[in-house]
Amino acid sequence: MPPPVSHSHRLFSFSLSEDCLCRRLVQAACGTGARDLVLGVEQYCCDRPNPILQVFYVAIIGGTYFIIVQSSFKYIPGYYVSVLHRYLSIVVVSIGAILFVLTSFSDPGTITSENVSQYVSAYPFDNIIYVEKECSTCKITRPARAKHCRICDRCVARFDHHCGWMNNCIGEKNTRYFVAFLVWHFLLCLYGAIILGFIVAGELKDKKVVYILTGYYSVRSKSSHSSNRNVFSCYI
Question: What is the pTM (predicted TM-score) of this model?
Answer without folding.
Answer: 0.72
